[in-house]
Design goal:
Layout lengths: L2 H12 L4 H11 L5 E6 L2 E15 L2 E13 L8 H15 L4 E4 L6 H6 L4 E11 L12 E3 L5 H12 L5 E2 L2 H13 L3 E6 L5 E10 L2 E9 L2 H15 L4 E5 L7 E9 L2 H11 L5 E6 L9 E5 L2 E4 L10 E4 H8 L3 H7 L14
Parallel strand pairs: 3-4, 10-11, 13-16
Antiparallel strand pairs: 1-2, 2-3, 2-7, 4-12, 5-11, 5-12, 6-8, 8-9, 9-10, 13-14, 14-15
Helix pairs in contact: 2-6
Length: 351
């Protein structure tokens, strides 16, 4: 049996995705080179996908992996098979040059599970709730832009995503997969243009159980955001609306996903080059990726390994989960630790 067929069989056994979504995913998104399987006595008991993405980090675009479809056959669970495959996946991510690994747990209890492998809950989403009566008033004149699959639409999408200081990015192909996924879920990707015909806002909206959820909102300003949200309301009728959006002061936020440093040297070297003033020494412990277990010294725009350093001279002595939390901390931890942290963002991962 081909690897794709094996992964597909296990996927259907473990997830409740619709046939339409599964057909779309395995015809458009799935790649054999991303698939990892664990074989025990001639039978594949676990599988997962290690998908390739990129993320801007302190002004540099770095390769990252995204773990999805992690599954173990129901009758083969509680034997540590997924932990074994996850370890293999993280080491593969290191070998292929990724800086970070990312994921969105399918259930709340899985956050604790992935913490054991060094992941930290660092991706947050602001959530705004609106009643069906909310008017979404705006001053500008906006017209519906319908050519969502156009190069112009992707350019707008990509420009807005790249403008965020630290965000998982999507290629053209991935963007078109997102649009298709949104349609499979019964939703619409809606956009509006200004009086000059230039795209000003875009919303990825999906109706579910009497409510519309906007899973991503991209806009040149608040007025344009209200312009496209009024189009969402017009399209789906008078329904309550939840809008997931990038960080906004005073808006409720909730944890969305997790990340983990895969290549400590690469990450700290990037940080050193982006922050010439940075000086620090840190010992990192990583029980999954042994190549990360060193003392790193950052100074003069460089990151060097110096395992001869005395423990008393270190600024930090941390495991990889804590290092990830520090790197992706908020403005409070950044100030307390005097460390150039940046809050990351993740969205539209076909989850």
């Amino acid at each position: 049996m081909k690897k794709k067929d094996i992964v597909l069989k296990l996927w259907r056994e473990c997830f409740d995705d619709s046939d339409q979504f599964v057909d779309m995913f395995f015809s458009r998104v799935y790649r054999d080179e991303d698939a990892l399987v664990l074989d025990k006595d001639g039978r594949v008991v676990s599988s997962m996908l290690l998908q390739r993405y990129s993320m801007n980090f302190h002004g540099v675009t770095l390769p990252v992996s995204y773990i999805c479809g992690a599954a173990t056959a129901p009758e083969m669970r509680a034997h540590g098979y997924m932990a074994e495959l996850l370890s293999e996946g993280l080491n593969e991510s290191y070998r292929r040059g990724d800086a970070f690994s990312t994921l969105i747990p399918a259930s709340g209890w899985l956050f604790k599970y992935y913490e054991k492998a060094g992941f930290s809950p660092v991706f947050y989403t602001c959530v705004e709730h609106f009643t069906s009566a909310h008017p979404f008033r705006h001053c500008g004149v906006y017209n519906a832009y319908t050519d969502i699959g156009s190069e112009e639409a992707y350019r707008f999408f990509n420009t807005m995503m790249e403008a965020r200081p630290c965000c998982v990015q999507h290629t053209r192909e991935q963007y078109h997969d997102i649009v298709m996924d949104n349609s499979v879920d019964g939703g619409s990707v809606l956009a509006v243009s200004d009086v000059d015909g230039v795209i000003a806002a875009m919303a990825f909206a999906v109706p579910d159980d009497g409510e519309v959820t906007v899973k991503e909102l991209l806009a040149v300003g608040d007025d344009a955001a209200n312009g496209v949200l009024s189009l969402v309301k017009e399209t789906f009728g008078d329904m309550p609306m939840s809008v997931w959006r990038y960080f906004s002061p005073g808006v409720e936020s909730s944890v969305r996903g997790m990340a983990r440093v895969v290549n400590v040297g690469l990450v700290l070297s990037t940080l050193a080059q982006s922050h010439p003033e940075l000086k620090l020494s840190v010992r990192v412990h990583d029980r999954v990726i042994p190549e990360n277990c060193h003392i790193y010294v950052v100074k003069d725009c460089r990151c060097m390994v110096d395992d001869s350093r005395d423990a008393e001279s270190l600024d930090y002595d941390v495991d990889v989960e804590v290092l990830t939390s520090i790197l992706f901390g908020n403005e409070v931890t950044e100030k307390i630790l005097e460390f150039p942290a940046v809050r990351p963002y993740i969205s539209l991962m076909l989850d």
